Structures are given as C-alpha cells and as structure tokens.
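Predict the holo structure. Ligand: magnesium ion.
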Amino acid sequence: MVKILTAHNDAIRQAADILKSGGLVGMPTETVYGLAADARNDDAVKSIFDAKGRPSFNPLIVHVCTLDDAMELAEMNGEALMLAEHFWPGPLTLILKRKNDCGLSHYVTAGLATVAVRIPAHKTARALIKACDFPVAAPSANKSGHLSPTAAMHVAQSLGDKVDLILADGVSRVGLESTVVDCSGDYPVILRPGGIAAAALSEVLAQDIAYHSVEIAEAAGEDVRSPGQLLKHYAPSIPLRLNAVDVREGEALLAFGSVKFMATTSGQHVNDLPLSRVMNLSKDGDLDEAAAHLFSMLHSLDVQEFTGIAVMSIPEHGIGVAINDRLARAARG
Ligand code: TXA
Ligand code: MG
C-alpha cells in the first residue's frame, strides 16, 4: 500500500527528505496533483518517466517558489516577466530559454533548449519546494495518457506504490492543468489551454495571444512545440460522446447547466435516472466550477457498469476552452 499523509508540517518534512534522497512524492497543487522529484537529479527524474510510463521525449514542468528562482533557471524576456508578475504564483507555465548553468537534469527538458517553469500558488506545494531548496520537477501524477488527479486518492489509484509518499491536501481548486505559454520565441503563444484563459493573458500583454494547437502547427508544416499535446490524453477507459442532446441506453450523463431539455432514449426524464448515472459539472452553468469538477466526475463515471459517458456541450469561452480541449482529447482516446 502506498503511504498517504495529510499535509501537515511533519508530513511535508518527510516528503522533503524523500525528494532530497531521490524519491517520488505526490504533491498537491491548485491545478492538479503532481508527481514530484528533484529536478537536478537524473535518476530521480528518470524514475518519474518510469512511474508514469511517460515517453522520454515529453519534457516536465519545473516548479519553484520565487521569480528569482525562475530567473536562475531560464532567460525571461519582457513578455515573460509581465505574465510572471501578474499570474505567478498560479496556474501558468512559461516555456523559456534554459540557462546553460541552470543545473537541471537534461531529462527534465527532454534535451530541449527550453524549460517549462511554474510557480504554484498551493500552500503545501510551496512549503514542500521551500523545504527542499531546489527546483522540483512535477508532471501530473497519473499514468501517461490517463486522467489527471485532483485528489490524493486518484494518485494512489493511478500510480500506487510507484510513489514513495502522497501528501493529501483536499481537492485541487482549479481542477485543470496550468495554461502553457511559450515565451521563448518572437511572440508568446499558448501551447496548452488551461487554468488561465487566453483573454486574461491578452489583457496583461496588451496584445492578442493565439493558441498554437498541434493541429495548427501540423497544418502549417511547422514543428510541434509542445510534445505532450501530441499524445492521447486524459482518457477514461469507457468512450465519451460529446455535445450530447440525449442519454442513450447504458450511458452515464455528464451534464452542464440545466438538464430540462435532455432526452433519454428509454423515455425517462434525466431527473428520474439513478443518481449514480448522472453528474452535473455545474448546475448554474459556471465554467470555473465545471473545470474544478471535470476530472473528478470523469473519474467517478468511468466504471464498467456504463457503456460510455454522454457529455453535454460546454461554451467555448474562458476556461471552457480548456475544458473542451480535455474533453476532445478524452473522446479521441
Ligand atoms: O498544472 C500543471 O501544469 C501540472 C501541475 C502538477 O503543475 N503539471 C502538468 O504537467 O500538467 P504535465 O507534464 O502533465 O504537462 C506538461 C506539459 C506537457 O504537455 C509538456 O509537453 C509541456 O508541458 N512541456 C514541458 N516542457 C516543455 C518545453 N520545454 N517545451 C514545450 N512544452 C513543454
Ligand atoms: Mg499530464
């Protein structure tokens, strides 16, 4: 059995000791739980890839506590600084030019000249990184290609005793991974929609920022800049059917907003279906609430008792863009 401890001071000290000696810790953050290791230690970093079954070409995010720490690792241009000052600590990851003397393992960055850096806002994540006093590499704490964890239990279910210790600290507030913005080129672009909406980034930058999706890059004949976006991702084990307007035989329903006009092929009203078959991301149609619930509800409905999950449509604005990105990947999986 994997060890799970409530994230009080003593547990955080134990977790820091594990990281210092090259082990792996399940670390709560405000986005999702991460699988943490010492970002300078080749063997520790390699064990992250092994535990997740993650392909070695897919680089990891490095977590630090302060802007000064970030600047020791990477070059930050004016735009990177504007975003960092406004959104850190928080659900934003910046892709920056890696400094030669940064001391990071080359496995963390998968041999690239850039590094992904994030300053998390979660108090336990911050306390753990501070106690370590070195940069902490952490991808989401799930098997590669599976749903991201928003609770300690999800980490235990996905990775089990491949983790030395899981720090439990409730449910992740944002519930979706950070927005990844590439600031290493001529102008910033979004590589992964996430916890911070494009409009909020544009406002701070005083310029429009585009989402450089894998599909767009491929259509333009360019190199894909975010290796992780190539992979099948966030997939539950039963099929997902998007933009559903009805619930079919054997399906569970992942609702959003009012279910008043949702039909079922069995002729019942949705409200008469068993409670275990229907979950609502947000009865009020609130996108932040929906994001916070997305992975945990997919986890709950992902059981063999159902033939699939019918998902109602989610508005494509604000954090809805990131929700739809995860749903589209899950449906493809
Ligand atoms: O919210 C989050 O970002 C969570 C928490 C734990 O911080 N972490 C997370 O990590 O989602 P992960 O490994 O699941 O996703 C990192 C993404 C991947 O798509 C990866 O390809 C991309 O960031 N990435 C990392 N380094 C990169 C780099 N140098 N250039 C381009 N993309 C990079
Ligand atoms: Mg992930």
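The CA atoms of residues 216 and 222 lie 9 Å apart. The radius of gyration is 20 Å.
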